[in-house]
Design goal:
The chain is an alpha+beta fold and about 100 residues long. It is about 35% helix and about 30% strand. The chain has a four-stranded antiparallel beta sheet with strand order 2-3-1-4.
Length: about 100
Amino acid sequence: MTAKALFVRLEAKPGKENEVAKFLRDGQGLVQQEPATTAWFGIKLGPTTFAIFDAFPDEAGRDAHLAGKVAKALMEKAPDLLAQPPKIEKADVLADRLPG
């Protein structure tokens, strides 16, 4: 069962929207290397607002993701791409429906 999640809100700098979208598309490949990341979504909420939603079976999986390649890449690129630091919110999953 999925127990833990992250919701990360990203606000692109003016003119950087396409680069943020590309970062999210490219991040999918890195996340596929994380066995404890059971769901991962790169989302566009509006013209300059993006988000990442991902889910994990437990706290250890979430912590591993936060220490992983996507998180590291995001923090490295944030000053160039984002108008403000990523807003990372930890959440508990109450219910899910995932294949498998």
